[in-house]
């Protein structure tokens, strides 16, 4: 709403509205918070806010069931000067100092609400429900950490991970043995205008990529589909430049035998000792292995992560 100089002038002649404006210049506040600070009833606060909003001196921002009031950006030079002059007189009000102290208490209470929640869930936070903390949010965040490098995603499937990495990497080569997967992924890359993402048809044992050309090779939930996991790891290691890394996200050894028919799995996960042995035999060093949190749902399997570096 545009500022009305005449109604703004009239609105600012009231000392209570001057106090409200001084508070809203410092912080967005709800009606209840203004009540607490000014020690005025709800109807009185609402009446004063209504006058300030009509004159263009205040606006509301709705968030859930609460409305937060604030001072809008005033474009008119005359209006800016009027507000500046009015705010210059606030210090002469007897309540000015106590209003600032009460505002400090109100904002402190806001911080304590969040602090008390985290104090209560400390040690349990990873299991507590938290909107925006799932992979659909965390994945894009982590993708920003990807350097300008060349990545091979072996067993890429439809390529959602490749597409995510391609937003920041220099180039991503996605390999899959399913022509339909490659066709679908290529169309998605074109639709998303990811010119640095290339899909290639090939299998884990013979990826169609030049040796010594890749900074990072990723195998995400692909190795348990390999005919010979050891050979697939050796093939992946050959693609790496010196200093490059192979990163495998797969499943810890499990006994959910129905995964073979339900998910087309060839292997029921892998033991740490097996993965370490295969990476070492492929000439990789500085191995790091980590068991991740068991997933909820019907399968109850535990993901495992291992990475190794090509040092020479």
Describe the structure.
The structure is a single chain. The protein is of the alpha/beta class. The chain folds into 2 domains: 5-113, Winged helix-like DNA-binding domain superfamily/Winged helix DNA-binding domain (Arc Repressor Mutant, subunit A), CATH 1.10.10; 141-309, Vaccinia Virus protein VP39 (Rossmann fold, 3-Layer(aba) Sandwich), CATH 3.40.50.150. The protein has 12 helices and 9 strands. It has helices at 5-11, 15-26, 31-38, 42-54, 77-88, 96-121, 135-143, 160-166, 179-191, 229-238, 259-263, 272-281; strands spanning 59-63, 66-70, 150-154, 171-176, 197-201, 214-220, 240-251, 285-291, 303-309. The strands form 2 sheets. Strands 5-4-3-6-7-9-8 form a 7-stranded mixed sheet, sandwiched between helices. A two-stranded antiparallel ribbon has the order 1-2. Helix 10 (229-238) links the parallel strand 6 (214-220) and strand 7. Helix 3 (31-38) packs across helix 6 and helix 10 (229-238) crosses helix 12 (272-281). The radius of gyration is 30 Å and the shape is elongated. It starts with a helix and ends with a strand.
Give the N-terminus to C-terminus distance in angstroms: 67 Å
Number of helices: 12
What does the main sheet amount to? 7 strands, mixed
Rg (CA only) = 30 Å
Briefly summarize what is shown.
The protein has 12 helices and 9 strands.
